[in-house]
Amino acid sequence: xxxxxxxxxxxxxxxxxxxxxxxxxxxxxxxxxxxxxxxxxxxxxxxxxxxxxxxxxxxxxxxxxxxxxxxxxxxxxxxxxxxxxxxxxxxxxxxxxxxxxxxxxxxxxxxxxxxxxxxxxxxxxxxxxxxxxxxxxxxxxxxxxxxxxxxxxxxxxxxxxxxxxxxxxxxxxxxxxxxxxxxxxxxxxxxxxxxxxxxxxxxxxxxxxxxxxxxxxxxxxxxxxxxxxxxxxxxxxxxxxxxxxxxxxxxxxxxxxxxxx
Length: 261
Ligand code: BTN
Known about the structure:
Blueprint: H1 8-14, E1 24-30, H2 33-43, E2 51-57, E3 76-82, H3 85-108, E4 113-115, E5 119-122, E6 125-137, E7 140-150, H4 169-173, H5 179-210, E8 217-222, E9 225-234, E10 240-243, E11 249-252, E12 256-259
Parallel strand pairs: 1-2
Antiparallel strand pairs: 2-3, 3-7, 4-5, 5-6, 6-7, 8-9, 8-12, 9-10, 10-11
Helix pairs in contact: 1-5, 3-5
Bound molecules: biotin (BTN).
Biotin binds at residues 32-34, 57, 60-63, 66, 68, 77-79, 119, 129-131, 147-149.
């Protein structure tokens, strides 16, 4: 069936100052944009923010090995190459779901919700799915490929082998929706959130590696209470985890620390 190709140039030019989408690789048919993006990252040294978008995926994939189906000329299937580092990579799929939600709200005025962890839904149906694939080398995240599928103008319900409630933006809005506007908005929103994530990740890492407290015997005083032990590490909120002499662990949210010799 003939269709109007995505106007990638329009999207790219409107993203001139955004951190993601400086380069958009537009393809008619691929196995999966995840595969192409991975090859670009591994073999061709793609820069961060490269977007691979395809009209048709012959082997589009979702979470848990499920297939992802999408109509050419109607919906959006794309992957973004990112170099997030460990900290940001753990939060990437959450960040992406918020970016898609914000973009949908911005372009359509509709109010999406999320189904844990990252399905974006409207009117009881799924409009977007998110998949993150990371490559780890020597314990470090080498790259992450963030894949996003959005049902913009076609509801794939009839074509799904595994039944889930799907819908599309146009159906919920009652009007056709510009794929270019949605892609642009997602990349802008994602760029903004990712920038914060990455910046925080660097600061967090620097904080953790600079903590001379860790691995040392400490005495922590808070009010009248005192805890003594080995500073074992910090948890995800930055609280200090202390191993007492009897082997038990205690998490301390505040206190004045005295380092022991
Ligand atoms: C899910 O909900 O299970 C995730 C679906 C992710 C689909 C997108 S479409 C673009 C990218 N290429 C793929 O093969 N999958 C992701």
